[in-house]
Amino acid sequence: MTAALGARALGKRYGRNWALSGCTLDIPAGRVAGLVGPNGAGKSTLLNLAAGMLTPTTGAVEVCGGVPGSGPEQLAKVAFVAQETPVYPGLSVAEHLRLGARLNPRWDDALARARIERWGLDPRRRAGKLSGGQRAQLALTLGIAKRPELLLLDEPVAALDPLARREFLASLMEIVAEDGVSVVLSSHLVADLERVCDHLVVLVGGEVRLDGEVDGILATHRRLTGPRRDVATLPAEQHVVSASHTDRQSTVLVRTEAPILDPQWTVSELGLEDLVLAYLSGDAVRRPALAVLR
Ligand SMILES: Nc1ncnc2c1ncn2[C@@H]1O[C@H](COP(=O)(O)OP(=O)(O)OP(=O)(O)O)[C@@H](O)[C@H]1O
Predict the structure, then answer these.
(1) Could you tell me the pTM of the whole model?
(2) CA of 3 to the centre of ligand 1 (A)
(3) Which of 94, 168, 207, 290 is the most core-located residue (most Cβ within 10 A)?
């Protein structure tokens, strides 16, 4: 099956700084993929490359089997809602929908109207007079009503209040279930991602630290607690993600396919949030031996 988003040794440099480097990943079609990473990790850069808004410095990126933004057919397949949720300030909400209908061959007007109504957006109101959250709702509506194969959302819920956030994520899930659309969304809110994503990509310092199905990620990570120990003595198949020590005790987060048989360890499962935080911590960043999970 064609990947919804695939990258091979993808890199983007601004001046001397690499915003993204050596990025190789595969997000299969039909998934809701979460893109997570600290500020400046390269999430927006990756999404802009996937949307065809930026061109790679090195490597290649592919979306829905084609080069991003490479022609009208390709453009119709992908919707991108950028982080600042750009809209036309001088146009009303209704005019945005009319523009959407004119520019997009698969435009779903009924869906667009239903969402505007559900969110209580006045069709006559100019977009420039909307609040930040309302503007995000309008931009998200335009993206969804385009009926794309792939929906790229850069921090879509950041400006929404908790109720609107929950409602938006629920409606996104409905659309995914009905339509089979692939979604890649970035967020700092791992709890939200945990609720909706079945695939996760962790970016740190412009590099992919983790790329895989959420179930597989959860199944292969364990927290080990036991008497203080040098992590260099752990078996080779236990990849250390992070470790912390007190005088007498060590807590180590490992990724491993194999069962953990050492009786000195108390082994526990961990939730996605703890796992992601361990990857984001400086400790994980400093470990060059850490292989990307695929
Ligand atoms: N137009 C630009 N010119 C120069 N540097 C840039 C530009 N855009 C991004 N960068 C740099 O590239 C790196 C990655 O930025 P990017 O916006 O992709 O990160 P991000 O993960 O989306 O961050 P955030 O969570 O803060 O939105 C950062 O170091 C940023 O300063």
Answers:
(1) 0.89
(2) 25
(3) 168
